[in-house]
Design goal:
The chain has 188 residues and is an all-alpha fold. It has eight helices and no strands. It has a domain of 104 residues: Up-down Bundle (Four Helix Bundle (Hemerythrin (Met), subunit A)), CATH 1.20.120.
């Protein structure tokens, strides 16, 4: 009898709950994942196109022309007129940078002699302008390297020759026929 009781106890411990149903994948899950990925890609692409269109509509500030920047720097140089060496460094560097931007000379990286030699091979400046520029750079070099200390009138003369060079070489704006008519109407 004992054996029947142990076997019935063993059977009672062996009973378990029913397992939940096993999910059988349909063959369409990949389609839903692909469609979701394409929808996300389309949204990202639409946002990118919208951002590029919006960015192109933002008005960009036109760059300041080289002659205007040079004139601004020459005005700042006047603040240093009491200090000949810094004044001459700023004025000559301003002219060198201006000439590089305006005429594509490689002025800032060269010595005065190298620059003047390159300048002789071009017809972008007149012979008189080349001569005055050479004198200007040599006078600045005396102050920068030979410790020459000119007085204020001579420094103002250097400044004036630098300003004249910029004004003589700045580009001339060509007016369209419409703007000429408008300016004539305004002045009348």
């Amino acid at each position: 009898m004992l054996t029947n009781q142990t076997s019935s106890l063993h059977v009672a411990n062996d009973i378990r709950d029913i397992k939940p149903p096993v999910e059988i994948p349909s063959g369409w899950e990949w389609l839903w994942w692909t469609l979701g990925g394409l929808a996300v890609a389309a949204i990202v692409f639409a946002l990118w196109k919208w951002w590029r269109k919006r960015r192109s509509q933002i008005p960009l500030e036109p760059p300041v022309p080289a002659h205007a920047r040079a004139k601004q720097m020459l005005e700042k140089a006047l603040e240093l007129i009491a200090q000949p060496k810094p004044f001459c460094i700023l004025v000559s560097d301003t002219i060198r940078v201006y000439l590089e931007e305006r005429f594509d000379f490689h002025a800032p990286e060269r010595t005065t002699e190298e620059f003047l030699h390159e300048l002789q091979g071009t017809d972008l400046l007149s012979a008189e302008q080349k001569e005055k520029l050479g004198e200007f750079l040599e006078r600045c070099d005396l102050v920068k390297f030979a410790k020459y200390e000119p007085g204020e009138p001579e420094l103002r003369d250097l400044h004036g020759s630098a300003l004249r060079l910029v004004e003589e070489t700045e580009p001339v704006e060509v007016q369209s026929p419409e703007s000429k008519v408008q300016s004539q109407m305004v002045s009348a």
